[in-house]
Amino acid sequence: MSPDKPDRIKFRKEPQQERSIHRVDVILSAAAHLIAEKGVSAMKMTELAAVAGVPIGSVYQYFPEKAAIVTALFDRHADLVQQKTAEVFVAVKSLDHAIDLVCGVIDWYYREFRGDPTYMGVWLGTEMDQDLLRLNIQHSNRVAEIFLKGIEPHIPAGSQIDLQARAQLFSHLIGASVRLAIMSDRSLAIRMLSEWKQVIRATLFAEPSGEPMGKRH
C-alpha cells in the first residue's frame, strides 16, 4: 500500500515482538467482529477494547484513532486482491485471454467476499473518510497497474486507447460492481455480474472507433 498515508490512519507503533503482534491481531479480530455486526460508525474504541479484552491504552498504543483500525483491515483485503491479480495476470497469452482472466477475477472476487460482512463494513467505512477514500482509490489504481503490466506485450501497435485511464476506470468499476452484487440478492447478483462481464468483453479493449482490439489480429 502507499507509503504516503497520513499519520492518523497509520499504526502509531508497529508491532515487532510476537506478544505485540498477537495483541494487535486480537484487536483487529475484535474490530472485524464489531464492524461486521454494526458497521464502522457505530464501533467505539472503548467497546473495541472491552471485546478484545485489552486495556483501552493498548488500543491507542497502536492505533491513533478508529480510521487507523479500518486502514489495517482494509489493507488485508486490498493485499489479497492485489496478490490474486498479480497471480492471474502474470501469464497473459492474448487480449482475449486477458478478458477471460478479468471475468474470472470478478467471479473470484464475488465468491471471496460474499460471505465476509467485515469486507463490506470496512469498504463502507472508507466511503465516509477522505483519507480512507484516497487509500481505496490508490488500491484500485495499483490493481490497474498490475493488469497493465500483464497486457502490455499484447497491445497492438497504433492503438489509440488511453490504456492507463481505461484500466484505472475499469478497476474501480469492477470493485464497485462486485460490492453492489454482494449487497444484492444472490440470484440478482449473478445476473448483474453476468451482464457486467458482457459489457467488459465488448468494451475493455474497444478502440475509440468501436473496433475491439482483440479482433484486429
General description of the model:
By secondary structure, the chain is an all-alpha fold. The chain is 69% helix and 0% strand. The chain has 9 helices and no strands. Helix 1 crosses helix 6 (117-127) and helix 4 (66-88) crosses helix 6. The two termini are 37 Å apart.
Number of helices: 9
Please state roughly what percent of the residues sit in beta strands, choosing from under 5%, 5-15%, 15-25%, 25-35%, 35-45% or over 45%: under 5%
Radius of gyration: 20 Å
Helical residues, percent: 55-70%
- Biggest sheet statistics: none
- Look at the structure and give the mean pLDDT: 92
DSSP strand count: 0
Query: What is the H/E order?
Result: HHHHHHHHH
Distance between the termini: 37 Å
Q: SS-based structural class? A: mainly alpha
Shape: elongated
**pLDDT below 50 for ≥5 consecutive residues: which ranges?**
none
Sum up the structure in keywords:
69% helix; elongated; 217 residues; mainly alpha
Quick synopsis:
The protein is mostly helical and 217 residues long. It has helices spanning 18-38, 45-52, 56-62, 66-88, 95-114, 117-127, 130-151, 163-182, 186-203.
Secondary structure layout plus pairing:
Layout: H1 18-38, H2 45-52, H3 56-62, H4 66-88, H5 95-114, H6 117-127, H7 130-151, H8 163-182, H9 186-203
